[in-house]
Amino acid sequence: MATIFTKIAKGEIPSYKIAEDDNYYAFLDINPLKKGHTLVIPKHFEEDYIFNLDDETYAGLTLFAKKVAKAIKAAIPCQRVGVAVLGMEVPHVHIHLVPLDAENDLNFRNEKLQVSAEEMAEIAKKINAQFGK
Length: 133
Fold this sequence. Notes:
Elements: H1 4-9, E1 17-20, E2 24-28, E3 38-42, H2 55-75, E4 80-84, E5 95-100, H3 117-130
Antiparallel strand pairs: 1-2, 2-3, 3-5, 4-5
Helix pairs in contact: 2-3
């Protein structure tokens, strides 16, 4: 059975897409720690532990996430973009990219933001416009 993230990457479930290529997909987290909080996934592997990925997929995912992080930094006012790999809530490898102004911004115990659909779409558009620049 496909994970929710596989369904998102296939377009079966709507998402606020940031970027994609043949192998990877980035989209806004619908329960963000900060505005611009993005998830990056491999499209063709439903592995739930990042260190079980083959070397090529792992390296490709990391490089794709780096490009997405640069786009987030260019589009969202922040000091830097933090990265976290937890993977406990969805059994599909995913990298969290979170705009940071303080270390505590990457604390997953923090209350999640409530962001309107309109604002989520605008954030995704801003980040996407910076992707690949």
